[in-house]
Design goal:
The structure holds two protein chains of two kinds. Chain A has no helices and twelve strands. Chain A is mainly β. In chain A, strand 10 (88-96) and strand 11 form a beta hairpin. The model of chain A has no long low-confidence stretch (mean pLDDT 93). In chain B, a hairpin with a 3-residue loop joins strand 4 and strand 5 (42-51). Chain B is an all-beta fold. Chain B is built from no helices and eleven strands. Classes of the chains: A mainly beta, B mainly beta. Chain A binds chain B through residues 31-33, 35, 37, 43-45, 47, 50, 52, 91, 95-97, 99-103, 105-108, and chain B through 31, 33, 40-45, 48, 50, 56, 58-59, 88, 90, 92, 97-104, 106-107, 109.
Chain lengths: 115, 113
């Protein structure tokens, strides 16, 4: 079965705190792709990152970083020094040939950053 | 500007009245798809199309139709909408499908009364 689990439904932090959003995936494919998307209050879906299963290097982009660990089937997302503008719903997603052409989404984590 | 355009942004209708949500992309993408987003359920795929004249069901196709007569357009048709189709709908496209970044439209909030 292809599945993405985001166990944290809602997270609330105060500005400047670091926060990690967890993502655990299931797939039997050896080749697969993982994504994170952001959905701000305005509703659009914003692409953040794509990672293939052969690239386990962590990635950093400004205040954002991603930790991909195949051993634990996790692809966690950390925001350093969070800001109010980071308030959004964050989705982790999986794409693989066994799943067909669907991008399989987790149910999302709602992050609220207060000032 | 590369984009996926879907219309309308908001739509209120009544049970049984046929409606169409349009979707168009200007990136010459082969792959297009429709998702619906519901609270607590995340995004679920309704239909997808790998190419012109090729469409297939996603996870939740009941009550929906699609067509792909041109590469750029992929309309979603609800022939007899029901209240359980009240949802936020997203159209998306990518170059070829699996493993590709999906570009999403800005969404259509549909309410069926």
């Amino acid at each position: 079965a292809q599945k993405v689990t985001q166990a944290q439904t809602e997270i609330s932090v105060v500005e400047k705190e670091d926060v990690t959003l967890d993502c655990v995936y299931e797939t039997r494919d050896t080749t697969y792709y993982l994504f994170w998307y952001k959905q701000p209050p305005s509703g659009e879906l914003v692409f953040l990152i794509r990672r293939n299963s052969f690239d386990e290097q962590n990635e950093i982009s400004g205040r954002y970083s991603w930790n991909f660990q195949k051993s634990t089937s996790s692809f966690n997302f950390t925001i350093t020094a969070s800001q109010v503008v980071d308030s959004a719903v964050y989705f982790c997603a999986l794409s693989s040939y066994r799943a067909g052409t669907a991008l399989i989404f987790g149910k999302g984590t709602t992050l609220s950053v207060s000032s | 500007e590369a984009q996926v355009t879907q219309n309308p942004r908001y739509l209120i209708t009544v049970t049984g009245k046929k409606l169409t949500v349009t979707c168009s992309q200007n990136m010459n993408h082969e792959y297009m798809s429709w998702y619906r987003q519901d609270p607590g359920l995340g995004l679920r795929q309704i239909y997808y199309s790998m190419n012109v004249e090729v469409t297939d069901k996603g996870d939740v196709p009941e009550g929906y139709k699609v067509s792909r007569k041109e590469k750029r357009n992929f309309p979603l048709i609800l022939e007899s909408p029901s209240p359980n189709q009240t949802s936020l709908y997203f159209c998306a496209s990518s170059k070829q499908g699996v493993g590709e970044k999906l570009f999403f439209g800005s969404g259509t909030q549909l309410s069926v009364l």
